[in-house]
Structures are given as structure tokens and as C-alpha cells.
Design goal:
- With 275 residues, the chain is of the alpha+beta class.
- The protein has one domain: Jelly Rolls (Sandwich), CATH 2.60.120.620.
- 23% of the residues lie in helices and 23% in strands.
- It contains five helices and 15 strands.
- The protein is globular, with a radius of gyration of 17 Å.
Length: 275
């Protein structure tokens, strides 16, 4: 079993994140990257803009990551043994593109309450300061949700360009990961990432989020997969797992789920972004 150690649990409690955690080999990471790029080549645009969400519904390898027992053991240490998968996101930063993520809190616009959930950020390629790894404002999860400006700014990979003001960037911690490693972070920790200044893509596969079965979606409708344990609450509709790569029905399901997600992300906003 690969449950979190007492030191890792302390890091999560004190800082709002735990990193790095070894999950699978670099060879496995390369296999997953190849499947992502196969999808991009076979159906151009399928993983772009709002299509970056829920790729695990059309890719057996990303589905396998989502249900990986090492990841679930670590998640269980934080939210308990009854675990649902409530969506995934691909964060791909290509070289020479102006893609960044402004400092924000995941819980701000996602509608998942209470905050018995966690985000897993899995590195499919190495993620470091040169190619724009995540940076965490340590301890910021202990405060309430902060006010976010909605900037809808060019290059911002977030839906509304949501931005927390006055983040002390020189005090933030870079989460350097090798391909096959992951970090876990709390719903209210403030984090962001800079531009990719390397000559290769930076690919992160993010399970956003693993939720406890007691968590409701208060802004709309999310379907979920049961990852572990039992769901006695039945707050969400259950969906299945893909058997084949790019199955026609699975592609339809992904589109439906992503349409539902747009309703959640832009609730109360009179403007929409690209994502």
C-alpha cells in the first residue's frame, strides 16, 4: 500500500500540498503521452479549449491513471476510503506559446462542497521551473476563499482568467516533478504557473477532482465514476469507463460532460472564456 506517511500528511496540513509522489515509470509516462498525441492527430481539436476536460472518458490509458491504486491510496489518506472521480483536465503548455495559469484557488468556481476533495496533478512530461511547473503559496489554504479578479486575459489557461491579487510570487514553492510523479493539493491553496520557456511540451494530467462521496455539486451537474469504496449518498449520476480508444459513444459522453462543466464554470458570469 502507498498511503501517505505522517511527514507527507503533515506537509499537506501545514502547506496545503504534498509533492513529489512516485506513481509510475518514465516509460509509462511516455506511453501515455503517445496516446494523448495520437488522439490529437486522429481528431484535431478534440483536446483543445474546453475539449481538454474529461479526456479520461475517451482514453483507456488516461482512465488507467485516474484509477491507479497508488494514487487512490494517497488520496484515501486525505479524504477517506469512499472516493469518486469528478472530472479530469489536461494542462498542455506548448513551447513558444504564451500559456500560463494565474494564481487562483480551485474551489472558487467549481461548486464542490464541502471541501472534502483533493486535486492530483500527474506529470506526463517532466515539470520544472523552465517549462512552467506549478507554484504553491504555502499555507494559503488555511484562509477562506479569496476574492478573484476575472481577467479573461490572453494566454491564461483558466476559464475566467481568475486571479488572486497580491500573491507574494517570490515566496511561492515550485513543484518540480519528473514524468510519472504527482503532487496533491488542497481545494483552497493558492497556486499558479508560469510560461513554458523550454523547447518541448509540458503535459500535466490533472484529476480535478477526487471527491468524497459526501461532496455535492452545488452549481450544476457533474457525473462521476466510483473509484473506491461505496457511495451511500448518490448525489451524482454514475458513468462508466472506456473500453476502447476513441469509442464513438464515449466521445459523445465527453462532449455532454464538458457542456455540463461549462454551465458550472461560467455560472453567474456574463462572459465566457476559451476554456
Amino acid at each position: 500500500m502507498s498511503y501517505l506517511s505522517s511527514n507527507q500528511l503533515k506537509q499537506y496540513r501545514d502547506e496545503g500540498f504534498v509533492s513529489p509522489i512516485n506513481i509510475f515509470s518514465k516509460e509509462k509516462a511516455k506511453e501515455i503521452r503517445n496516446e494523448i498525441e495520437l488522439i490529437e492527430n486522429r481528431i484535431p481539436g478534440e483536446l483543445e479549449k474546453s475539449g481538454r476536460y474529461n479526456a479520461h472518458l475517451i482514453s483507456p490509458l488516461l482512465d488507467e491513471v485516474t484509477h491507479n491504486s497508488k494514487i487512490l491510496d494517497a488520496v484515501q489518506s486525505l479524504i477517506g476510503e469512499n472516493i469518486l472521480v469528478c472530472g479530469t483536465t489536461l494542462f498542455i503548455k506548448n513551447p513558444n506559446e504564451k500559456g500560463f495559469v494565474s494564481y487562483h484557488q480551485d474551489a472558487k468556481y467549481i461548486g464542490l462542497e464541502p471541501h472534502n476533495w483533493v486535486t492530483a496533478w500527474v506529470a506526463i512530461t517532466d515539470s520544472n521551473e523552465k517549462n512552467g511547473c506549478m507554484r504553491m503559496w504555502s499555507g494559503s489554504h488555511k484562509d477562506n476563499l479569496k476574492e478573484h479578479d476575472q481577467k479573461f486575459n490572453e494566454g491564461n489557461l483558466l476559464t475566467r482568467g481568475q486571479t488572486v491579487k497580491n500573491v507574494p510570487k517570490d515566496e511561492t514553492t515550485p513543484l518540480v516533478l519528473e514524468a510519472g510523479q504527482m503532487s496533491l493539493h488542497h481545494p483552497t491553496v493558492v497556486h499558479g504557473s508560469e510560461l513554458n520557456k523550454s523547447n518541448d511540451r509540458r503535459i500535466g494530467f490533472v484529476i480535478q477532482s477526487y471527491i468524497g462521496t459526501n461532496v455535492k455539486q452545488v452549481l450544476g451537474k457533474n457525473s462521476v465514476q466510483l473509484a473506491r469504496g461505496v457511495d451511500k449518498f448518490n448525489y451524482h449520476e454514475m458513468i462508466g469507463r472506456p473500453q476502447n480508444l476513441l469509442d464513438t459513444q464515449d466521445i459523445k459522453l465527453k462532449k455532454q460532460e464538458n457542456d455540463n462543466l461549462q454551465e458550472i464554470f461560467y455560472k453567474g458570469s456574463d462572459k465566457k472564456g476559451k476554456f
